[in-house]
Design goal:
Layout (H helix, E strand, L loop, with lengths): L1 H23 L48 E4 L7 E3 L9 E3 L2 E3 L7 E3 L6 E8 L14 E7 L6 E6 L33 E9 L2 E2 L5 E3 L2 E6 L2 E8 L21 E2 L10 E9 L2
Antiparallel strand pairs: 1-15, 2-5, 3-4, 4-15, 5-14, 6-9, 6-15, 7-8, 7-14, 9-12, 10-11, 12-13
Length: 276
């Protein structure tokens, strides 16, 4: 019996040592599961998102801010009013050209362009006299009608007014879409200084039966400050009541002889770029 135990003891020792060694050996790390799909997805070549046509036309910008670019139609360059007529009877415009500007000749009526337009970019500069008088709406009042749809004040008006320290209803101050949209800011310079409007006009379109197809939109900058941000017009400008649309195709741009008793305002450097 002792002999048998002596033979078995080395095997027992080895088995015990093996069990202890296995207990001290850290478990094997389980490899992470493979991600679903292709982790290294192949991106398409950059040429798939490159567009080469149509090529935009080359337009040479003006030599300085406000100067007409190469594709502009110059409506007033300080020399004459050959591009303008009196709105009421289409006779030659009677406003006064002097010193490179045109000044409203009060009580001679609104003037409008001989040409008609649809969608366009407009640049126009205007000046309130330094010795302006009056207040509220009777102080340097005029307007730029982005589409003149008839005699008088028919159309869509971007307001011109002395809004430098002059309180009035805010949808009638300078750079408002008159009686429709308040300007985002009052960027008015002092009387005697030149103001600028830079406007993008998207004309309304109409169905064959005269109903509205798409509305008009206006973006306008006053002295480089955003005043109207692609606003959707409710219709033509009206002094009383609610605006509504009336079908038309193309229209002139019109400047208003308002008739308020304050000294007459002036305009200069007027040009337009037709947009397709």
């Amino acid at each position: 019996m002792k002999r048998r135990l002596a033979v078995l003891l080395p095997f027992v020792f080895l088995a015990t040592f093996a069990v202890r060694a296995m207990a001290q050996t850290p478990p094997a790390q389980t490899p992470p599961a493979a991600p679903r799909g292709n982790a290294q997805q192949t991106l398409p070549p950059p040429q798939e998102t490159e567009v080469w046509e149509p090529v935009p036309p080359v337009v040479t910008p003006g030599a300085s801010y406000g100067m007409p670019p190469s594709d502009a139609i110059v409506l007033f360059d300080g020399k004459n009013l050959d591009e303008w007529v009196t709105t009421s009877d289409k006779s030659p415009a009677k406003w006064t050209v002097h010193d490179g500007v045109v000044t409203v000749a009060k009580r001679t009526g609104n003037i409008e362009t001989k040409r008609t337009f649809k969608n366009y970019q407009l640049h126009i500069e205007w000046q309130i006299p330094e010795a302006i008088t009056g207040n509220d709406q009777a102080r340097g009042n005029s307007g730029v009608f982005l589409a003149s749809t008839g005699n008088g004040d028919a159309g869509y008006e971007l307001q011109v007014l002395d809004s430098y320290n002059n309180k009035t209803y805010v949808n009638g101050q300078a750079a408002s879409i008159y009686k429709q949209f308040i300007p985002l800011a009052n960027a008015m310079r002092k009387p005697g200084e030149w103001q600028t409007y830079d406007v993008v006009w998207t004309a309304p379109t109409f169905n064959a039966d005269g109903s509205l197809k798409t509305p008009a939109y206006v973006t306008a900058f006053h002295n480089g400050v955003l005043a109207q941000d692609h606003v959707q017009l409710k219709g033509e400008t009206v002094f009383r009541g609610k605006p509504e649309y009336k079908a038309y195709d193309r229209a002139p741009i019109k400047l208003q002889d308002h008739g308020d008793p304050s000294p007459a305002i002036s305009f200069r450097n007027i040009w337009v770029r037709e947009l397709k």
